[in-house]
Design goal:
About 75% of the residues lie in helices and about 0% in strands. The protein has about 210 residues and is mainly α.
């Protein structure tokens, strides 16, 4: 009988390595999801690595293996969920530009869920934590640029025309304001009226002929 060959050993090691990579990826995603949930529910002060690890069902050592510092964990968590929400937004309109009222409503929804609440706690913490501030500022700028790109694409906006870029950014700023208001009270009826009005305002700007929006 032949012994175990080098090729056999290599294939066995690869077979073991793939499930280990899958487990590592799954652990990382559980930690990220738990971090966002903790930040949204308990704020920065109540969201330690130990608390997040317990919620994710992993050891503190495992959490620190993936994210050596608390700042690493929470900035990665908000970025991860922001990317997931961007993908989900695109998935709602797989063919690109869509009905503007639906797009405006979907963009507003980005700012009324646990991701926005978690991000807000991170912003507040960054205003007092010097080592966190630069990372959060960079993250917010990156997320903001991506959200703006998606909005332009879905609205079919031509930003080479005067006023269009500012109108799209105004929409996102308005959506952020509605998200802040939603932290204290559920103002869904008012939000629906604002969404309808913004859809009309955008249509007037985006559909205006040359010179009409100057």
């Amino acid at each position: 009988m032949g012994g175990v060959t080098t090729t056999d050993r290599a294939e066995h090691e690869r077979a073991e390595r793939v499930p280990k990579q899958d487990r590592s990826r799954a652990t990382r995603q559980r930690l990220l999801a738990a971090a966002v949930a903790c930040l949204a529910e308990h704020g920065w002060a109540g969201s330690t690595v130990a608390v997040v690890a317990m919620r994710a069902g992993v050891s503190r050592g495992a959490a620190q293996h993936h994210f050596p510092t608390r700042e690493d964990l929470f900035t990665a968590a908000v970025e991860y969920v922001a990317e997931e929400r961007s993908r989900a937004l695109r998935a709602l309109f797989p063919e690109g530009a869509a009905d503007r009222r639906a797009v405006v409503a979907a963009l507003v929804d980005l700012y009324t869920g646990p991701l926005f609440r978690a991000a807000l706690h991170l912003w507040v913490a960054a205003s007092n934590e010097e080592q966190l501030r630069g990372r959060v500022t960079e993250l917010e700028a990156r997320v903001g640029r991506e959200t703006h790109r998606i909005a332009v694409e879905l609205l079919g906006a031509d930003e080479s025309r005067p006023g269009v870029r500012e109108s799209v950014q105004g929409l996102l700023d308005m959506a952020r304001g509605l998200g802040l208001a939603n932290l204290l009270t559920d103002d869904a009826p008012r939000r629906e009226r604002v969404v309808a009005q913004w859809a009309e305002l955008l249509a007037a700007v985006l559909d205006a002929g040359p010179g009409e929006s100057d």
